[in-house]
Amino acid sequence: MQDITERFLAAKSQGAWPVESLVDAHAAGTAFAGLRLEWDSSADEQWIRLLKTSLMLALVWVPGPLVIETSGHQELAPEVQRVTGISPEIVVVPHMDSPVLCVAPAGVWPDQEWPTGAIDPGACSAHDLWYATS
Question: With the CA atoms of 69, 23, 80 and 52 taken in that order, what torsion angle do they form, in degrees rounded to the nearest 10?
């Protein structure tokens, strides 16, 4: 298991970052060519999803500069850095549904209830993290 708690905390400690610039660059056609970007800022979603058709290739955490990307698409975090000018924390997973991650939810999301029984924070996937914190 890859414990990513410290990466979340490091990203969170950097504070606000220009995450909206990713949406703007995608809309202008200057970033993430050929990918679909999904994020509803009005719904206070914590993740921007980067997808190729229905396959999620990367998650970008809104509260702090952190990117979870698949091992076959490690060009996405550098694209985030190029657009925002900020070096994100990077987590690489073999697939978004591979349960290779662990995290201490109370340390990262102290004011949010973790879906106990539905998602195991000791063995979760990136997709599980998206679900648990959306």
Answer: 30
Single out the residue of 92, 54, 67, 52 nearest to residue 17, CA to CA. Answer: 67
C-alpha neighbours within 13 Å on the C-beta side of residue 103 = 26
- Spatial contact of 68 and 129, defined as CB atoms under 8 Å apart: yes
Walk along the chain (134 residues) in steps of 10 and give the mean pLDDT of each run: 97 94 97 95 92 95 97 94 97 96 95 91 96 88
User: Residue 122: phi, psi to the nearest 5?
Assistant: -85, -10
**3 state SS of 24:** helix
- The pTM for the full model equals 0.95
Torsion of CA 33, 52, 67, 4, to 10 degrees: -160
CA 121/CA 65 separation, integer angstroms: 21
Cβ neighbours of residue 12 closer than 8 Å, sequence gap 6 or more = 63, 64, 108
Strand partners, 91: 68
